[in-house]
Amino acid sequence: MLNAALAAGIPCGFFLGDEVYSPLYLRKGCRELGVGYALAVKSDHRITTGRGKLTAKGAVGRLPAAAWQRMRTGTGSKGARDYDWAMIDAIADDVPAGQADAGVSVLLARRHRYTARSPTSAAGRLSRCRWRGWWG
Fold first, then answer.
1. What is the pLDDT of residues 103-116, one digit of tens each?
2. Structural domain harbouring 34
3. pTM for the complete prediction?
């Protein structure tokens, strides 16, 4: 679908998707096309950080309290939607053969500001993100 959209001349600098859309082949495809992405991942998704290989849940569990930053995502029917966010630097696992790793790869975690529930719950989300500069 992404290939077809780009071939049809539809501009795209960034791709977003749910965890069903985050397999390695899609992330590699985005890189080959020069498209940044933010894709939700499961808590058992494996990432490599400066501390070695961890699950996404394990990496988030090691974050110090100071790593979280509160940001408003909008206003809903129940009032302001403020969440705590944290980014964890990740070593890219999706660099196509023959390409340099020119970009930023992170695990982005969001948690509920009142319950501080783990990102493995319904109140939290984990996303694998990659971009080159700001928006392409």
1. 788 888 888 777 76
2. 2-131
3. 0.75
Low-confidence ranges of the chain (pLDDT < 50): 120-124, 133-136
Instruction: Write the burial class of residue 86 (CB in 10 Å: 0-12 exposed, 13-18 middle, 19+ buried).
Output: buried
CA distance 29 to 69: 31
Domain assignment present for residue 81? The answer is yes
Give the residues across from 105 on adjacent strands: 130
Do 46 and 53 touch, CB atoms closer than 8 A? yes
Nearest to 132 by CA among 35, 49, 48: 35
User: 136 lies in a domain?
Assistant: no
Provide the number of structural domains found in the chain: 1
